[in-house]
Protein backbone atom coordinates (compact mmCIF):
# COMPACT_ATOMS: atom_id res chain seq x y z
CA UNK A 1 0.00 0.00 0.00
CA UNK A 2 2.96 2.32 -0.63
CA UNK A 3 5.16 4.07 1.89
CA UNK A 4 4.06 4.24 5.49
CA UNK A 5 3.84 7.24 7.76
CA UNK A 6 5.10 7.48 11.32
CA UNK A 7 3.33 10.22 13.27
CA UNK A 8 4.12 11.52 16.74
CA UNK A 9 1.15 13.06 18.60
CA UNK A 10 1.45 15.59 21.42
CA UNK A 11 -1.99 16.98 22.31
CA UNK A 12 -2.86 19.36 25.14
CA UNK A 13 -3.15 17.28 28.31
CA UNK A 14 -6.95 17.12 28.53
CA UNK A 15 -9.27 14.21 27.75
CA UNK A 16 -11.28 16.34 25.34
CA UNK A 17 -8.06 16.49 23.30
CA UNK A 18 -6.64 13.01 23.99
CA UNK A 19 -9.76 11.26 22.74
CA UNK A 20 -10.09 12.74 19.22
CA UNK A 21 -6.31 12.48 18.79
CA UNK A 22 -6.50 8.79 19.65
CA UNK A 23 -9.43 8.29 17.29
CA UNK A 24 -7.26 9.79 14.55
CA UNK A 25 -4.36 7.57 15.62
CA UNK A 26 -6.62 4.54 15.25
CA UNK A 27 -7.56 5.67 11.74
CA UNK A 28 -3.89 6.05 10.81
CA UNK A 29 -3.05 2.64 12.26
CA UNK A 30 -5.99 1.09 10.43
CA UNK A 31 -4.30 2.18 7.19
CA UNK A 32 -1.03 0.57 8.23
CA UNK A 33 0.75 3.63 9.63
CA UNK A 34 2.51 3.96 13.00
CA UNK A 35 1.87 6.42 15.82
CA UNK A 36 3.82 7.42 18.92
CA UNK A 37 1.36 9.10 21.28
CA UNK A 38 2.76 11.27 24.11
CA UNK A 39 0.57 11.65 27.19
CA UNK A 40 0.86 11.72 31.01
CA UNK A 41 1.15 8.50 32.97
CA UNK A 42 -2.32 8.31 34.54
CA UNK A 43 -4.01 9.20 31.27
CA UNK A 44 -2.09 6.39 29.55
CA UNK A 45 -3.80 3.81 31.74
CA UNK A 46 -7.22 5.34 31.11
CA UNK A 47 -6.81 5.51 27.34
CA UNK A 48 -5.33 2.06 26.77
CA UNK A 49 -8.78 0.48 26.18
CA UNK A 50 -9.39 2.96 23.33
CA UNK A 51 -6.16 1.98 21.57
CA UNK A 52 -7.51 -0.39 18.91
CA UNK A 53 -4.09 -1.09 17.37
CA UNK A 54 -1.58 -1.53 20.23
CA UNK A 55 0.96 -3.04 17.85
CA UNK A 56 0.97 0.15 15.78
CA UNK A 57 0.17 2.83 18.37
CA UNK A 58 2.67 3.29 21.19
CA UNK A 59 1.32 5.22 24.18
CA UNK A 60 4.47 6.94 25.42
CA UNK A 61 4.23 8.28 29.00
CA UNK A 62 5.40 11.79 29.81
CA UNK A 63 6.25 12.79 33.39
CA UNK A 64 4.73 16.06 34.57
CA UNK A 65 7.58 18.05 36.13
CA UNK A 66 7.23 19.82 39.46
CA UNK A 67 5.90 23.37 39.27
CA UNK A 68 5.31 25.51 42.34
CA UNK A 69 1.57 25.97 42.69
CA UNK A 70 0.62 22.79 40.79
CA UNK A 71 -0.68 20.09 43.15
CA UNK A 72 1.31 16.87 43.19
CA UNK A 73 -0.20 14.27 40.86
CA UNK A 74 -2.14 16.81 38.76
CA UNK A 75 -1.82 15.95 35.08
CA UNK A 76 -4.89 17.38 33.35
CA UNK A 77 -7.26 20.36 33.80
CA UNK A 78 -9.84 18.01 35.31
CA UNK A 79 -7.46 17.46 38.24
CA UNK A 80 -7.42 21.13 39.24
CA UNK A 81 -9.62 24.26 39.31
CA UNK A 82 -9.40 26.69 36.41
CA UNK A 83 -7.44 29.14 38.58
CA UNK A 84 -4.52 26.67 38.61
CA UNK A 85 -4.44 25.92 34.88
CA UNK A 86 -1.62 28.44 34.42
CA UNK A 87 0.67 26.14 36.42
CA UNK A 88 -0.23 23.15 34.23
CA UNK A 89 0.67 25.21 31.17
CA UNK A 90 4.10 25.88 32.67
CA UNK A 91 4.52 22.19 33.47
CA UNK A 92 3.70 21.12 29.93
CA UNK A 93 6.19 23.62 28.53
CA UNK A 94 8.79 22.04 30.81
CA UNK A 95 8.24 18.67 29.13
CA UNK A 96 10.02 19.96 26.03
CA UNK A 97 13.17 18.00 26.79
CA UNK A 98 11.14 14.78 27.08
CA UNK A 99 9.43 15.51 23.77
CA UNK A 100 12.78 16.09 22.09
CA UNK A 101 14.05 12.75 23.43
CA UNK A 102 10.95 11.03 22.05
CA UNK A 103 11.42 12.69 18.65
CA UNK A 104 15.05 11.62 18.46
CA UNK A 105 14.21 8.07 19.51
CA UNK A 106 11.16 7.52 17.29
CA UNK A 107 12.24 9.60 14.27
CA UNK A 108 8.71 10.41 13.08
CA UNK A 109 7.76 11.87 9.71
CA UNK A 110 5.19 14.21 11.22
CA UNK A 111 4.38 15.72 14.63
CA UNK A 112 0.74 16.59 15.39
CA UNK A 113 0.17 19.03 18.24
CA UNK A 114 -2.31 21.69 19.34
CA UNK A 115 -1.06 23.81 22.22
CA UNK A 116 2.70 23.52 22.67
CA UNK A 117 3.71 26.45 20.47
CA UNK A 118 7.35 25.35 20.51
CA UNK A 119 6.71 22.05 18.69
CA UNK A 120 7.31 23.51 15.17
CA UNK A 121 10.75 24.66 16.34
CA UNK A 122 11.55 21.19 17.71
CA UNK A 123 10.30 19.62 14.50
CA UNK A 124 12.48 21.81 12.30
CA UNK A 125 15.55 21.07 14.44
CA UNK A 126 15.04 17.38 13.72
CA UNK A 127 14.00 17.65 10.08
CA UNK A 128 10.39 16.72 10.81
CA UNK A 129 7.17 18.31 9.52
CA UNK A 130 4.68 19.73 12.04
CA UNK A 131 0.90 19.89 11.88
CA UNK A 132 -1.31 21.86 14.25
CA UNK A 133 -4.30 19.56 14.61
CA UNK A 134 -7.11 21.55 16.19
CA UNK A 135 -9.89 19.81 18.11
CA UNK A 136 -11.77 23.04 18.84
CA UNK A 137 -14.17 24.40 16.24
CA UNK A 138 -13.06 26.30 13.16
CA UNK A 139 -15.68 28.86 14.16
CA UNK A 140 -13.78 29.64 17.38
CA UNK A 141 -10.43 29.82 15.64
CA UNK A 142 -11.80 32.14 12.96
CA UNK A 143 -13.45 34.45 15.54
CA UNK A 144 -10.83 34.60 18.29
CA UNK A 145 -7.50 33.38 16.95
CA UNK A 146 -6.91 35.23 13.70
CA UNK A 147 -4.82 38.43 13.74
CA UNK A 148 -6.78 41.66 13.63
CA UNK A 149 -9.51 40.89 16.12
CA UNK A 150 -9.66 41.08 19.89
CA UNK A 151 -11.15 39.20 22.78
CA UNK A 152 -14.84 38.90 21.92
CA UNK A 153 -14.41 40.99 18.74
CA UNK A 154 -14.07 39.19 15.39
CA UNK A 155 -11.28 40.13 12.96
CA UNK A 156 -11.90 41.87 9.63
CA UNK A 157 -13.48 39.61 7.05
CA UNK A 158 -14.90 37.18 9.61
CA UNK A 159 -17.45 35.24 7.55
CA UNK A 160 -20.56 35.43 9.75
CA UNK A 161 -22.83 38.12 11.12
CA UNK A 162 -24.63 35.59 13.34
CA UNK A 163 -21.89 33.78 15.24
CA UNK A 164 -21.02 36.56 17.65
CA UNK A 165 -20.90 37.21 21.39
CA UNK A 166 -23.77 39.05 23.06
CA UNK A 167 -24.18 41.04 26.27
CA UNK A 168 -25.31 38.08 28.36
CA UNK A 169 -22.20 36.08 27.32
CA UNK A 170 -19.97 38.10 29.65
CA UNK A 171 -20.17 35.30 32.21
CA UNK A 172 -18.65 32.83 29.74
CA UNK A 173 -15.93 35.22 28.68
CA UNK A 174 -14.93 36.38 32.16
CA UNK A 175 -13.47 33.03 33.24
CA UNK A 176 -11.28 32.95 30.13
CA UNK A 177 -10.32 36.60 29.93
CA UNK A 178 -7.30 36.25 32.22
CA UNK A 179 -5.87 33.57 29.93
CA UNK A 180 -6.82 35.05 26.56
CA UNK A 181 -3.60 36.95 25.79
CA UNK A 182 -1.43 33.97 26.68
CA UNK A 183 -3.67 31.58 24.78
CA UNK A 184 -3.89 33.89 21.76
CA UNK A 185 -0.10 34.30 21.55
CA UNK A 186 0.56 30.56 21.82
CA UNK A 187 -2.15 29.66 19.35
CA UNK A 188 -1.30 32.21 16.67
CA UNK A 189 2.40 31.36 16.99
CA UNK A 190 1.56 27.70 16.42
CA UNK A 191 -0.67 28.45 13.43
CA UNK A 192 1.98 30.70 11.92
CA UNK A 193 4.98 28.41 12.42
CA UNK A 194 3.55 24.96 11.74
CA UNK A 195 3.90 23.38 8.30
CA UNK A 196 0.26 22.34 8.07
CA UNK A 197 -3.06 23.25 9.73
CA UNK A 198 -5.80 20.70 10.26
CA UNK A 199 -9.15 20.85 12.02
CA UNK A 200 -11.47 18.22 13.43
CA UNK A 201 -14.48 19.25 11.35
CA UNK A 202 -16.05 18.94 7.91
CA UNK A 203 -16.81 21.27 5.03
CA UNK A 204 -20.56 20.76 5.33
CA UNK A 205 -20.63 22.28 8.83
CA UNK A 206 -17.78 24.81 8.99
CA UNK A 207 -16.49 25.15 5.45
CA UNK A 208 -16.49 28.95 5.24
CA UNK A 209 -14.67 29.26 8.56
CA UNK A 210 -11.97 26.81 7.45
CA UNK A 211 -11.54 28.75 4.20
CA UNK A 212 -11.20 31.98 6.19
CA UNK A 213 -8.53 30.49 8.48
CA UNK A 214 -6.60 29.25 5.46
CA UNK A 215 -6.77 32.64 3.74
CA UNK A 216 -5.56 34.48 6.86
CA UNK A 217 -2.65 32.13 7.57
CA UNK A 218 -1.87 31.46 3.88
CA UNK A 219 -2.07 27.70 4.36
CA UNK A 220 -4.33 24.91 3.23
CA UNK A 221 -6.53 23.62 6.04
CA UNK A 222 -6.89 19.83 6.08
CA UNK A 223 -10.07 18.39 7.58
CA UNK A 224 -10.41 15.05 9.35
CA UNK A 225 -14.15 15.01 9.95
CA UNK A 226 -15.44 14.97 13.56
CA UNK A 227 -13.34 11.99 14.73
CA UNK A 228 -16.03 10.19 16.69
CA UNK A 229 -15.89 6.47 17.43
CA UNK A 230 -18.31 4.35 15.45
CA UNK A 231 -21.34 3.37 17.51
CA UNK A 232 -20.82 -0.26 18.52
CA UNK A 233 -24.29 -1.72 18.82
CA UNK A 234 -22.84 -5.18 19.37
CA UNK A 235 -22.16 -4.06 22.95
CA UNK A 236 -25.50 -2.68 24.15
CA UNK A 237 -26.16 -0.64 27.26
CA UNK A 238 -25.91 -2.47 30.56
CA UNK A 239 -29.21 -4.15 31.42
CA UNK A 240 -29.90 -1.84 34.36
CA UNK A 241 -29.68 1.27 32.18
CA UNK A 242 -31.53 -0.27 29.27
CA UNK A 243 -34.31 -1.40 31.60
CA UNK A 244 -34.56 2.01 33.26
CA UNK A 245 -34.65 3.92 29.96
CA UNK A 246 -37.20 1.52 28.51
CA UNK A 247 -39.63 2.61 31.24
CA UNK A 248 -40.09 5.89 29.37
CA UNK A 249 -42.00 6.44 26.14
CA UNK A 250 -40.11 6.94 22.88
CA UNK A 251 -38.57 10.40 22.73
CA UNK A 252 -39.51 11.35 26.29
CA UNK A 253 -36.31 11.57 28.20
CA UNK A 254 -24.63 9.47 25.37
CA UNK A 255 -23.50 7.71 22.13
CA UNK A 256 -25.33 4.54 23.18
CA UNK A 257 -27.55 6.48 25.62
CA UNK A 258 -28.37 9.09 22.98
CA UNK A 259 -29.23 6.27 20.59
CA UNK A 260 -31.79 4.77 22.97
CA UNK A 261 -35.32 5.41 21.62
CA UNK A 262 -36.54 6.79 24.96
CA UNK A 263 -34.00 9.62 24.95
CA UNK A 264 -35.59 12.55 23.17
CA UNK A 265 -33.61 15.61 24.27
CA UNK A 266 -29.90 16.23 24.79
CA UNK A 267 -29.14 19.16 27.11
CA UNK A 268 -25.49 20.06 26.62
CA UNK A 269 -22.82 22.71 27.29
CA UNK A 270 -21.93 22.41 23.58
CA UNK A 271 -18.29 21.47 23.89
CA UNK A 272 -17.05 20.55 20.43
CA UNK A 273 -17.20 16.80 21.05
CA UNK A 274 -20.69 17.03 22.53
CA UNK A 275 -21.74 19.16 19.58
CA UNK A 276 -20.86 16.40 17.15
CA UNK A 277 -22.46 13.72 19.30
CA UNK A 278 -25.70 15.71 19.32
CA UNK A 279 -25.64 16.25 15.56
CA UNK A 280 -25.36 12.55 14.75
CA UNK A 281 -28.12 11.65 17.23
CA UNK A 282 -31.89 11.77 16.72
CA UNK A 283 -32.38 13.85 19.87
CA UNK A 284 -33.66 17.38 20.09
CA UNK A 285 -30.84 19.69 21.22
CA UNK A 286 -30.93 22.25 24.05
CA UNK A 287 -27.75 24.19 24.82
CA UNK A 288 -26.38 25.94 27.92
CA UNK A 289 -22.87 27.14 27.04
CA UNK A 290 -20.50 27.80 29.93
CA UNK A 291 -17.15 28.82 28.37
CA UNK A 292 -16.38 31.21 25.52
CA UNK A 293 -15.74 28.59 22.84
CA UNK A 294 -18.97 26.82 23.79
CA UNK A 295 -20.90 30.04 23.17
CA UNK A 296 -19.71 30.19 19.56
CA UNK A 297 -20.39 26.47 19.08
CA UNK A 298 -23.89 27.11 20.39
CA UNK A 299 -24.49 29.98 17.96
CA UNK A 300 -23.33 27.72 15.13
CA UNK A 301 -26.08 25.24 15.97
CA UNK A 302 -28.82 27.70 16.95
CA UNK A 303 -28.34 30.68 14.61
CA UNK A 304 -26.39 29.35 11.61
CA UNK A 305 -27.64 25.77 11.25
CA UNK A 306 -30.91 26.25 13.21
CA UNK A 307 -30.89 22.74 14.65
CA UNK A 308 -31.00 23.60 18.37
CA UNK A 309 -32.25 26.11 20.93
CA UNK A 310 -30.27 27.96 23.59
CA UNK A 311 -31.47 28.43 27.16
CA UNK A 312 -32.13 32.12 27.67
CA UNK A 313 -30.02 33.95 30.25
CA UNK A 314 -30.30 37.28 31.99
CA UNK A 315 -27.66 39.92 31.19
CA UNK A 316 -25.85 38.76 34.32
CA UNK A 317 -25.50 35.31 32.75
CA UNK A 318 -27.93 33.77 35.22
CA UNK A 319 -30.56 31.31 34.01
CA UNK A 320 -33.37 29.75 36.03
CA UNK A 321 -34.97 26.33 36.08
CA UNK A 322 -37.92 28.00 34.41
CA UNK A 323 -35.68 29.17 31.55
CA UNK A 324 -34.43 25.62 31.14
CA UNK A 325 -37.94 24.23 31.25
CA UNK A 326 -39.11 26.66 28.57
CA UNK A 327 -36.25 25.66 26.26
CA UNK A 328 -36.83 21.92 26.70
CA UNK A 329 -40.58 22.27 26.22
CA UNK A 330 -40.05 24.39 23.12
CA UNK A 331 -38.35 21.49 21.36
CA UNK A 332 -40.23 18.59 22.95
CA UNK A 333 -43.82 19.85 22.68
CA UNK A 334 -45.34 18.09 19.69
CA UNK A 335 -47.29 21.23 18.77
CA UNK A 336 -44.30 23.56 19.03
CA UNK A 337 -43.43 25.39 15.81
CA UNK A 338 -39.85 25.86 17.02
CA UNK A 339 -39.56 22.18 17.92
CA UNK A 340 -40.88 21.14 14.54
CA UNK A 341 -38.47 23.42 12.67
CA UNK A 342 -35.29 22.43 14.52
CA UNK A 343 -36.26 18.76 14.28
CA UNK A 344 -36.69 19.09 10.52
CA UNK A 345 -33.39 20.95 10.10
CA UNK A 346 -31.54 18.54 12.38
CA UNK A 347 -32.90 15.52 10.53
CA UNK A 348 -31.68 16.88 7.19
CA UNK A 349 -28.25 17.74 8.56
CA UNK A 350 -27.86 14.39 10.29
CA UNK A 351 -28.80 12.59 7.10
CA UNK A 352 -26.01 14.46 5.33
CA UNK A 353 -23.37 14.03 8.04
CA UNK A 354 -23.93 10.29 8.55
CA UNK A 355 -24.43 9.54 4.87
CA UNK A 356 -22.45 6.46 3.78
CA UNK A 357 -18.83 7.24 3.20
CA UNK A 358 -18.88 10.94 4.12
CA UNK A 359 -17.07 10.78 7.47
CA UNK A 360 -14.79 7.90 6.50
CA UNK A 361 -14.10 9.76 3.27
CA UNK A 362 -12.69 12.68 5.24
CA UNK A 363 -10.34 10.52 7.26
CA UNK A 364 -9.29 8.50 4.22
CA UNK A 365 -8.49 11.68 2.30
CA UNK A 366 -6.64 13.14 5.28
CA UNK A 367 -4.46 10.05 5.66
CA UNK A 368 -3.80 9.97 1.92
CA UNK A 369 -2.77 13.63 1.85
CA UNK A 370 -0.50 13.21 4.87
CA UNK A 371 1.19 10.24 3.26
CA UNK A 372 1.63 11.99 -0.08
CA UNK A 373 2.83 15.33 1.26
CA UNK A 374 4.93 14.16 4.20
CA UNK A 375 6.50 10.91 3.10
CA UNK A 376 7.14 11.98 -0.48
CA UNK A 377 8.03 15.52 0.64
CA UNK A 378 6.11 17.08 -2.21
TrEMBL record:
InterPro entries cross-referenced by the UniProt entry: UDP-glycosyltransf_plant, UDP_glucos_trans
Among the GO molecular function terms of this UniProt record, one is: UDP-glucosyltransferase activity
Q: Does the keyword Signal apply?
A: yes
Q: Which domain of life is it from?
A: Eukaryota
The answer to whether the entry has keyword Cell wall biogenesis/degradation is no
Q: Which UniProt keywords apply?
A: Signal, Transferase
Pfam families xref list: UDPGT (PF00201)
Residue span of the signal peptide, if any?
1-16
- To which protein family does this belong? Belongs to the UDP-glycosyltransferase family.
* Protein name in UniProt: BnaA03g12090D protein
Source organism per entry reads Brassica napus (Rape)
The root-end lineage is: Eukaryota, Viridiplantae, Streptophyta, Embryophyta, Tracheophyta
Its gene name is BnaA03g12090D
Amino acid sequence: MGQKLHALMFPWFAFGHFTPYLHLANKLAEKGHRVTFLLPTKAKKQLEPLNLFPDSIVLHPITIPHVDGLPAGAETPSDIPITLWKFLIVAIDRTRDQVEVAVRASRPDLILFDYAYWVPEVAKEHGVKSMMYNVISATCIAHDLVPGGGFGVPPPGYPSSKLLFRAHDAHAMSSFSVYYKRFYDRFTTSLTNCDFISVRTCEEIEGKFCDYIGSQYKKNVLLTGPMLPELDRSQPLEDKWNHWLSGFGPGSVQPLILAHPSVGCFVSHCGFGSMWESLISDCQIVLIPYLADQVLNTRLLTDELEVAVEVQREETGWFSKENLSVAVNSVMDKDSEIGSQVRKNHSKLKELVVSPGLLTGYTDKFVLLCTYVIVRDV
